[in-house]
């Protein structure tokens, strides 16, 4: 059988234990939810006008998340979630190859989700200095993700040393624990950055304060992503320090899947709220209000450039894509 989770050497005559069922159950449950949420987001954006770069990034993140789950399923064939004593010697190399690919895929998923959120923030930001900060944030996340990717892909000389760890192997690799700690620290730092950045943007929106607080509370779901990132780091630390890394590492991977999927959900929240309002029978969601905006919003007319004066001294022109993004934000309240 292809997926024989209980294969392996028996311990005291009993089948070997595995944490694979738990990780796969959590992973696929989350993925089903995110598929629905991302689909709702795409429908909303199509209704509002067209897909933009942040939508493409979140679709890509969803596809990569599915690829990670497929890698996890395949890894179960080679002992994922088992005690190290139950791992057959011939499983080590294929398991290591899957782990090598999974880290690269996870990095892509992290980057796509966070970049999607930053591009969305950029579209609704009005202050020039805030946009400069967002440019720097995008550059930082890009540089950090590229660094992690390169270290993962080329951290061993030759590259095959990443999965061929036999005693006769002469490859030289960076310290695994140092790489994992750097990856975790980078993820936590960027999670905190994404948590803080939208607050000044949302506070400056010209909508009622009750609506602003609602939006801030919605984006504060990023706390969950940060929390899962911290727990993932701690469980990774436990697995590295322990003597049963595959068994202990199953929980670390589960929290990584939680972090990735909750991040995708958070990035889609504004559009999902608008989708829910439509499902609940709000027929004015897609209908222009008296001021010409979708859903009766108060920002600007869609599909045309709109000039906004701020404080009597600044003028700013919004493109149709940016106005559509603003209307999506305003639609959630």
Automatic annotation (TrEMBL):
Q: Which InterPro entries match?
A: Rhodopsin_dom_fungi, SAT4-like
Q: Which UniProt keywords apply?
A: Membrane, Transmembrane, Transmembrane helix
Membrane topology, as annotated:
Multi-pass membrane protein
Q: Where in the cell is it found?
A: Membrane
Which residue numbers delimit the Rhodopsin domain? 40-276
- Its transmembrane ranges are 20-44, 56-80, 92-111, 132-154, 215-234, 254-276
Pfam families, from UniProt? Fung_rhodopsin
Q: Which domain of life is it from?
A: Eukaryota
| PANTHER family according to UniProt | INTEGRAL MEMBRANE PROTEIN-RELATED, PTH11-LIKE INTEGRAL MEMBRANE PROTEIN (AFU_ORTHOLOGUE AFUA_5G11245)
Q: Which family does it belong to?
A: Belongs to the SAT4 family.
- List the protein's name: Rhodopsin domain-containing protein
Q: Write down the species.
A: Discina gigas
């Amino acid at each position: 059988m292809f997926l024989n989770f209980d294969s392996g050497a028996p311990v005291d005559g009993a089948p070997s234990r595995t944490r694979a069922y738990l990780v796969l159950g959590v992973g696929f449950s989350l993925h089903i939810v995110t598929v629905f949420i991302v689909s709702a987001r795409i429908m909303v954006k199509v209704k509002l006008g067209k897909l933009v770069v942040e939508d493409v990034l979140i679709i890509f993140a969803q596809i990569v998340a599915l690829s990670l789950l497929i890698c996890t399923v395949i890894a179960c064939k080679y002992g994922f979630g088992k005690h190290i004593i139950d791992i057959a010697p011939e499983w080590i190399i294929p398991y290591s190859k899957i782990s090598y690919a999974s880290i690269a895929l996870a990095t892509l998923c992290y980057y796509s989700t966070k970049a999607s959120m930053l591009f969305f923030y950029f579209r609704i930001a009005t202050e020039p200095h805030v946009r400069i900060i967002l440019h720097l944030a995008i550059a930082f996340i890009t540089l950090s993700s590229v660094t992690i990717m390169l270290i993962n892909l080329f951290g061993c000389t030759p590259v095959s040393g990443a999965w061929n760890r036999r005693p006769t192997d002469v490859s030289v690799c960076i310290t695994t624990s140092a790489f994992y700690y750097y990856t975790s620290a980078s993820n936590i730092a960027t999670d905190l950055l994404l948590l803080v950045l939208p607050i000044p943007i949302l506070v400056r929106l010209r909508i009622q304060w009750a609506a602003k607080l609602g939006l801030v509370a919605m984006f504060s779901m990023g706390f969950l992503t940060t929390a899962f990132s911290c727990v993932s780091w701690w469980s990774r630390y436990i697995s590295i320090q322990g003597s049963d890394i595959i068994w202990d590492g199953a929980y670390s991977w589960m929290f990584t899947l939680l972090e990735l999927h909750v991040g995708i959900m958070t990035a889609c929240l504004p559009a999902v709220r608008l989708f829910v309002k439509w499902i609940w029978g709000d027929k004015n969601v897609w209908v222009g209000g008296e001021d010409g905006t979708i859903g009766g919003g108060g920002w600007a007319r869609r599909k045309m450039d709109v000039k906004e004066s701020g404080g009597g001294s600044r003028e700013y022109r919004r493109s149709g894509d940016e106005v559509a993004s603003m209307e999506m934000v305003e639609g959630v309240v």
